[in-house]
Automatic annotation (TrEMBL):
<dbReference type="InterPro" id="IPR016484">
    <property type="entry name" value="GTPase_Der"/>
</dbReference>
<comment type="function">
    <text>GTPase that plays an essential role in the late steps of ribosome biogenesis.</text>
</comment>
<dbReference type="GO" id="GO:0043022">
    <property type="term" value="F:ribosome binding"/>
</dbReference>
<keyword id="KW-0547">Nucleotide-binding</keyword>
<feature type="domain" description="EngA-type G">
    <location>
        <begin position="3"/>
        <end position="167"/>
    </location>
</feature>
<feature type="binding site">
    <location>
        <begin position="56"/>
        <end position="60"/>
    </location>
    <ligand>
        <name>GTP 1</name>
    </ligand>
</feature>
<dbReference type="InterPro" id="IPR027417">
    <property type="entry name" value="P-loop_NTPase"/>
</dbReference>
<dbReference type="Pfam" id="PF14714">
    <property type="entry name" value="KH_dom-like"/>
</dbReference>
<dbReference type="GO" id="GO:0005525">
    <property type="term" value="F:GTP binding"/>
</dbReference>
<feature type="domain" description="EngA-type G">
    <location>
        <begin position="176"/>
        <end position="351"/>
    </location>
</feature>
<comment type="similarity">
    <text>Belongs to the TRAFAC class TrmE-Era-EngA-EngB-Septin-like GTPase superfamily. EngA (Der) GTPase family.</text>
</comment>
<feature type="binding site">
    <location>
        <begin position="119"/>
        <end position="122"/>
    </location>
    <ligand>
        <name>GTP 1</name>
    </ligand>
</feature>
<dbReference type="InterPro" id="IPR006073">
    <property type="entry name" value="GTP-bd"/>
</dbReference>
<dbReference type="GO" id="GO:0042254">
    <property type="term" value="P:ribosome biogenesis"/>
</dbReference>
<feature type="binding site">
    <location>
        <begin position="229"/>
        <end position="233"/>
    </location>
    <ligand>
        <name>GTP 2</name>
    </ligand>
</feature>
<keyword id="KW-0690">Ribosome biogenesis</keyword>
<comment type="subunit">
    <text>Associates with the 50S ribosomal subunit.</text>
</comment>
Length: 439
């Protein structure tokens, strides 16, 4: 799994600027106004061959009655619970505030590694400002400037130093890890209980009953699985809490750890925007994917209903038409055992390896049937192909000019591979490398 790093702190200390600096992308909105980052943003970063997920949180303002600030505090709390390493950002110009002390108290209770970053140390004359932050009692403060990029190497060294235990903590190779993801109250816990044939997980009609991600090992016909249930958000007294928004980051954690993702859809609602976001995370992570439509027992149907529903899912999730769709009832057990067969099948497809000779034959035949595109006054030439990795199947194509490759032609090549080998339930990746004709 990729370790997860959460950047937390009160509003306007420079978290989004640091996030953009570490990910190399301008993703988070940066504005000199407290509370601009309303939702967590997440992206992949890399340092010294360590890949990790970094989360930019909204600012924490302890005990604030302001609705926006209280929402951001909840978002950050989920990020804190989800992260393996926490970067606590403070403002070196302003010094320690009461809010910083409250946040430090929250972080001390997590028992997780915390890296204390004192931001806005833009020149050496301000470095003495850093020493004050020893008073927070959560370790040695590191002076940085996220806007100028000062101190980034030392900060990243400190972050990745905490990854060793996470990266070494791998489960057995013969166990298939399955993330069950979806909106709150879609039936994730009910499905787990039905698969393992006992009440392992609390089931309630209240969204967000599952408070923490729970690993449930079980065996089926000699095959070993670990089911990863994704937690909902802790239920508060306010009825207008936007529970669904906060499930995405928990889903991301489970997806990163898994081999196969079951994306659960509520048959009564169809595909929602939240479902699309979660499905997109699984697709981008390159995992094996099965779309599970739950509560099928509650739908009035005729002989066309299932096909019509499947076609609607294909249209709504058009970026993953490769994923098999199964209609179940976790409550009655309808088709639940078939879900296990699909998990095994999809895991195998995600780990498929194609020999170099066969791969090049398929690519050559595809080019003969449909000429490669033109661009910049020349035609794309594909000299050689090889499979770089599995999970997902990833292919390197050596070409005369990678910029000429068009998305539609890549989709054509992908379809040719799927037609020959299936590759159902798994994304396919292509990497293009330039090579001169004489090489």
């Amino acid at each position: 799994m990729k370790p997860i790093v959460a950047v937390v702190g009160r509003p306007n200390v420079g978290k989004s600027t640091l996030f953009n600096r570490l990910t190399g992308k301008r993703i988070a909105i940066v504005e000199d106004k407290p509370g601009v980052t309303r939702d967590r943003i997440y992206s992949e970063a890399e340092w010294l061959n360590h890949k990790f997920i970094i989360i930019d949180t909204g600012g924490i303002e302890p005990y604030s009655e302001d609705i926006i600030l209280s929402q951001m505090r909840r978002q950050a709390q989920i990020a804190i619970e989800t992260a393996n390493v926490i970067v606590f950002m403070t403002d070196g110009k302003e010094g320690i505030t009461h809010a910083d002390q409250e946040v430090a108290e929250m972080l001390r209770k997590t028992n997780k590694p915390v890296v204390l970053a004192v931001n806005k140390i833009d020149d050496p004359t301000k470095f003495n400002n850093v020493y004050e932050f020893f008073n927070l009692g959560i370790g040695e403060p590191m002076g940085i400037s996220s806007s100028l990029g000062l101190g980034m190497g030392d900060l990243l060294d400190e972050i990745v130093a905490h990854f060793k235990n996470i990266e070494e903590d791998e489960e057995e190779d013969d166990v298939t890890k399955v993330a069950i993801v979806g909106k709150p109250n879609v039936g994730k816990s009910s499905l787990i209980n039905k698969l393992v044939k006992e009440e392992r997980v609390i089931v309630s009609d209240i969204p967000g009953t599952t408070r923490d991600a729970i690993d449930t090992p079980f065996e089926y016909k000699g095959d070993k699985f670990i089911l990863i249930d994704t937690a909902g958000i802790r239920r508060k007294s306010k009825v207008n809490e936007e529970v669904e928004r906060y499930s995405v980051i928990r889903s991301l954690t489970a997806i990163e750890r898994s081999d196969v993702c079951l994306i659960m859809i509520d048959a009564n609602e169809g595909v929602t925007e939240q479902d699309s976001k979660i499905a997109g995370l699984a697709h981008e992570a390159g995992k094996g994917i099965v779309i599970v439509v739950n509560k099928w027992d509650l739908i009035e149907k005729d002989d066309k209903t299932m096909n019509e529903f499947r076609n609607k899912i294909r249209a709504d999730l058009s970026f993953m038409t490769y994923a098999p769709v199964i209609f179940i009832s976790a409550k009655t057990g309808q088709r639940v055992e078939k879900v296990i067969e699909l998990i095994k099948f999809t895991a195998n497809q995600n780990a498929m390896r194609i020999s170099t000779g066969v791969l090049n034959d398929i690519i050559s035949d595809a080019v003969m049937m449909n000429q490669a595109p033109m661009g910049k006054g020349k035609r794309l030439k594909i000299f050689y192909a090889t499979q770089a990795s599995t999970k997902p199947p990833t292919f390197i194509l050596f070409v005369n000019d990678p910029e000429i490759m068009h998305f539609s032609y890549e989709r054509y090549l992908e379809n040719q591979l799927r037609e020959r080998f299936g590759l159902e339930g798994t994304p396919v990746r292509f990497i293009y490398r330039a090579r001169n004709e004489g090489e």
